[in-house]
Design a protein that fits this description.
Number of strands: 32
Structural class: mainly beta
Helix content: under 10%
Radius of gyration: 43 Å
Shape: rod-shaped
Strand content: 35-45%
Strand order of the largest sheet: 24-25-26-27-28-29-30-31-32
Length: 362
Amino acid sequence: MSVPANVTLRFVGAGEINVASGQTLTINGYIEGPNKQLFTGLGSVAVGSSGVIKQVWFDGSTQKHQMANLSLGVGGLPTNARIHAMGGTANDGIIKANNTAAALESIFRAENNTGNQTDLKQYGTSHGTFPGAGAIQSTNDFLFIIGASTEKARIKSSNGFMGINCNPQYMLEVQASANSTSPIVATNAANTRIGAFHTNGSGSGEMYLYNSSGSARAAIIGSGSGNSYILDNFFGVGTTPTVDLHVKGDTSAEIRLETTGASTDCRIGMIQSNQQVDQVISGTNGFFRLDDITGGGTKFAIDMPNNKFGFGKTAGSDVYGFNMATEDLGINDAGSTSATEQDWIEVTVGGNTGYIRVFATK
């Protein structure tokens, strides 16, 4: 059944229309009637854009926010919805709610069969209790509310700041729910954690990078003494850097290179004009040496377990070994631990060994 646009549907007295199940009543003109239920039944009512539509005409109550068993289409026939609003011109609201009360009730409420509710509400500067679980609210700021009063997120109207689990004081702020948690986590396509901002047990900040298996591979820890900075390509540990690598400790500063293999070296390379010329090597079994890897070989070496030194060569059998211009020079102690008046120093040059006598007095 269809009512044309030039006809006003006027209800008087106890009159009402029952729309049978499976039927649609299309009203293209105006509706006039008292503040009571005018449409009943299980069918659909499609209302055009003419005049005012009152909710009470469809449910018979001024308190309930439901449309009985009718489907209402505004601007066209309803499709898969109890209320279907269509059309409108630019900058016009499709659905508008208005109330003169200080605190507005739910504009939209969804409720499942177990009573859990999701509300879209708008409040003035003063409002009462928060709605039920899954609520979305708007005050002067836009709030996302879960449960009776638990705020989970907020967008501030004054500056656009967004906060998750907090009232934001920065453009984007995420607050940890407790210490030893990761409020911000990045994952890969397999949902494996690959990066995280973390808070430790004392509430200090930490930042981690993980490999594809979720194992930590890099970290910046905010606890401990001093601070760490990256500043204009300078890196500072415990201080604001003024050189490329700047390490400062309270009582001592340590840079440690460590390998897991039993026969591997720790190396520090020094590069000039994009060419690596020097290398400090902490070798196996307590050896240390300084090499010129452009062809000059070892320039200085220490055999720390045996207290032997090499100058221009590796540390060998001599306590002090020198690589001279023509042949090697070795110096060793050849004396006795009980000697008091004189002692001997063994000197080896080019494979020839001699001795220098050392007297206690002139």
